[in-house]
Amino acid sequence: MNDLFITPAGWQQGKDFKPRFDNWLRRAKVPILLLNAESLNTGHVWHFTASWTGEPPGLVGDEVDKNERCRRLYYRQAPVQHLRNYRLGYAVAASACVPGLFDPLVIDKLYPDRTIRLVDGGVYDNQGVESLLDEQCRLVLCSDASGQMEDSPKPSGGLLGVLKRSSSIQGDRIREAEYQDLCGRLDTKALQGLFFIHLKKDLQVPPVDWIQCDDPSQEVKPWETNTPYGVDACLQGKIAGIRTDLDSFSEVEANALMLSGYLMTDYQFRQLQRQHLEEAGMGTWGDFDIDAARQTDWPFLPLEPIMSEPETSQDPRRRELGRQLSASRHRAFKIWRLDPMLRKLRWALLGAVTMLVLTLVRAFWDVKLLELTVNQLVVLMVVVLAGFLFPVFNWINPLRSTRDPARRLALAVLGYLTAKLHLKKFDKRYLEYGSMNRLLALAGRPAGQGTPIQALGAALRRWSGAITKRTTR
Question: Is 142 within a domain?
Answer without folding.
Answer: no
